[in-house]
Amino acid sequence: MKIVKKVLSKLFIFLFLSAALLVTLGPFLWVFFASFQTNREILSFTLGFPSGLNIKNYAKALQIAPIAQYYHNSIIVTFFGIIFNLLIMSMAAYVLSRFQFKMQGLIRTMFSMGLLIPGAALLLPLYTSVSTVRLYDSVWGLIVVYVGFGIPTTLFILSSYYRTIPREMEESAYLDGAGFVRTYLYVILPLAKPAFATAGVMQFLLCWNEFQFALTLTTGHQSRTLPIALYYFQSAFASDYGAMFAAVVLVSLPSIIVYVILQKQVVSGLVAGAVKG
Amino acid sequence: MKIKKRWVILFLLPGVLWFAFVYLFSIIQVGVTSLCEWRIAGEITFKGFDNYVQIFRSADFRRALLNNVIWIVLQSTVHVLFGVIFALIVSRGKRYSGFFRTVYMLPNIISSAALGMLFYNIFNPMYGPVNKLIQALGFKDFRANWYADTRLSFFAVTLTWLPFAAIVAILVIAELAAIPDSILEAAIVDGAGELALIWHIKLPLVRSAIGTGTILAATSMLQKLDILAMTSNGGPGNRTMNLPLLIYKTAFNTNNFGMANAQGVVLILVGLLSIGIINKVYRMNEPV
Amino acid sequence: MKKYKRISLLLAATMICTSLMGCGAGAGSAGKDDNAKKEENTVQEDSAADAGTQENAGEENAGGESAASGEKVTIRYATYEVGTHLGEKTTSELLQRFRDRNGDTVELVVEELPSDTTYTEKMKTLVATNDLPDVIDGKNGLRDLALQNGQVVYLNDYLDSDPDFRDNVIGAEAIAANTDADGNILSIVNGVQAIGYFYNKDMFEAVEIKPAETWEEFNENCEKLLAAGYTPLGLMTGENSWTTNLLLAAMVGGKGEAGVELMNTKYPETYQTPEMISALEDMQLYLQKYTTPDALGAGYANVANNFLTEQVAMVFNGSWMIASFSEEDKANPGLADRVGFAMYPGNGLIQTYAEGYSICASTRETQDAAWELLKELTGNETQMGRMTREGGIPVSSYIDITEEYRQENPLFAENVDAVQKAEYSVATLDVMAYANVVDAFGIYYPELANGTLDAAGMAAKLDEAAAAAK
Hints:
- The complex is a heterotrimer of chains A (277), B (288) and C (470).
- Chain A is flat.
- Chain A has helices spanning 2-34, 39-43, 56-64, 67-98, 104-113, 119-132, 139-149, 151-162, 167-175, 180-191, 193-209, 212-216, 226-230, 241-273.
- Chain A has a single domain, classed as MetI-like (MetI-like fold, Orthogonal Bundle).
- Chain A is 75% helix and 0% strand.
- Chain B contains 14 helices and two strands.
- Chain B has a single domain, classed as MetI-like (MetI-like fold), CATH 1.10.3720.
- With 288 residues, chain B is mainly alpha-helical.
- In chain B, 68% of the residues lie in helices and 2% in strands.
- The relative contact order of chain C is 0.14.
- Chain C is globular and about 75 Å long.
- Chain C has 21 helices and eleven strands.
- In chain C, the strands form four sheets. In chain C, strands 6-7-5-8 form a four-stranded mixed sheet. A three-stranded mixed sheet of chain C has the order 4-9-11, sandwiched between helices.
- Classes of the chains: A mainly alpha (277), B mainly alpha (288), C alpha/beta (470).
- At the A-B interface, helix 1, helix 4, helix 5, helix 6 and helix 7 of A face helix 1, helix 3, helix 4, helix 5 and helix 6 of B.
């Protein structure tokens, strides 16, 4: 009986992971291979590996869109977007999830509304506000906006994690004579590392991939970010699949690499920070 | 716990101010102009609840609302389930775990425009690999046009997000890792099997993470725009329309900002209601 | 319960803010209106070269450009002709020419807006914030919005100051197409669209048919092609349903006077006319029977590639497509020699002057600089570039399509000659219909093809869309 159970559970795990592999990796491999082919080869696609690798599409893609410059901007925007967001929200999430006070529910509800406001309703007000503070067409304008966009998600992730930290940890710190800020800095923050890693990943994805506001709040190459580059291949009356797929790969692959690196940090963060009572 | 009020205020202030700069003006504007006649390049004049009456009379809006509710329900159940199962499998710490965690995350890593382009092409009825694969499995005449077929489009669109639950998974993985070994060991000593361990120990302890994941998954349905626009564009007819796409079209195709904002208010209410329900179900505001 | 109480409290607070802000917003918009009127005045007085109003205009211009003499004037322009767009090269060259010629006095700031959707979206945001660039391409209804905003500068005086440019480079007909009922010239173009269709000669020969002369024959041709195993029509319903809507426009026009009139009316009252419904009925058949399996939901790229790899016999598109017939990565080898040009049955042609370019600048200095840019955008060199690179049909009488050029570009020559032969011509839906009506076509074609909507029902849906846009 036990063996049957074990086999069944192994089988289930195997099937589940295979399915996950197929639906996630499959499409990417197809686009990756297609990015080395000409239009005609893509159209006569048959299952299996491509006959030859042709890097012409990549040369074309790099020529068509200012990808290198956009990379640079994306890195700046993402870096500061993550730092500021985690900084302000770790503080807010801490008091919101650990203490009782008036207006708490109101403030929580208000923050969570950020998840719900349609992008189309934000475009005009943000264009006006960002122009007013003279951050239009600047990476800083984007950073300010993205830090704001990340507020609800970071709040949810951090406060959910803060709540799992036993209260005794703080109480013993207070008994040792540590003040509010000291307790927060030296007791809570180190414990919450895994949550910071998760929230950081979410914020990374937001800053790295956001398109609509990157377009609306900038005009020049010096402040535009990577997602815009993809649209250089979406022109009316353009039909070059190969270059378009090459662009998809060029825009996505580094995000994947950055994620893999970040994820290593996430894993080590998990091990280092976990409350192993 | 007694703390000084000023610390609460000081800790909240940066977040609240930042939020106010980014959102407050928009929230007020959405609320106010939803009661106004306001078209691009036109004047703003107050007209009461007329926009609301009109949107609820519109079949497109009712369909978008219904679709959105269905998608929110699917996303907070099936999608979350996928994510939790994945997290439970991967957190067993086998050698393949790291690889799968990265691979599963792929669709969430790349921009939605790239993802839309990708899905649009793999489901192409002529050269797309999905149909080729089905044909190779023996259905030689299979030529479904996924996004344009009235019977398939809703399913095909749902497939672009339902299976990809990596966000839920990473949230749960993080909290699974925080479960003290002593608790698990004690349970194993008591003779708990794997399923019992999951059901009675692990899941209750990561309740809050699942709740957070559910909120993010559910509300993400209220922001899906690019990928829908690039695959089915809400069609055929209004079969795959959702609120964000309808709002976008009302604002930027029909130029009717006032009505778009009325639709936006409904979207916000649907979202708040969803969050409220999820909070209740997962008892999010109580300590674990 | 507590939670709900909180939510309702929040709502109440929002409501209060709402009513307070309501007054504010009303007052604000009234002010905006005043401003717009004032601007209009200055524009007119400026046109009359009244030096007295220049100060006034300078004050109003919040764009940060200085009107003081000696300093450079800054003007802004936004273009979607970047990236993979066919016009990318011509546009970057013309902008460079402008900078070479006017660099001493004018600073030109160009915003790149890749793809049509991003262009329209950003420009609409700029319309709503009264922040349009000094020169705009008025496609997709943008010129009308700028006009409602009171930002469009009438070009009459500028054109009259340069009669040669007016009469020979642009021409009376093209100007008339963009003149309003009061005689104000709103915009100018750098070419004319004249669209027939392209067909695969090999396939036509294989089933022994010629391009149809009547619509009955067109249907018979489709039937013969299909019987021989060829897919007759390259149709699409994704993006703006471009090829499908071209064919539909020609079909409506082919149904007689009333159809031609409907298809030449800007923003028609109703699409529920016998001609449109009958054309939609035919289109239902075409979408079900005579086109590729991916037509529903297909984008332009799909249709183009299907034609280039000889998977369909006909594609409905303009002369800019000709160059791609000989691109070896895309087209089957030797395709260029196997493609023919045809007019629609009954010698029909789709002919439109697009909205072209308008000036939305607010001060005299920026308007003058914008006019120089406008001349560059529509001048002989640009028209020449468009013709040789993009197969654009020029309007300038200075551009002589030589016999040699005709020999080298036979399809282009045929396409150009069709303009003289056309017995009826209709506009593209993109120019004559509201943007959301064009979108509605793409959304309801699949329903039509699936049989869940009939032709009359679809026409009614189009009317609904048009009504929402008014």
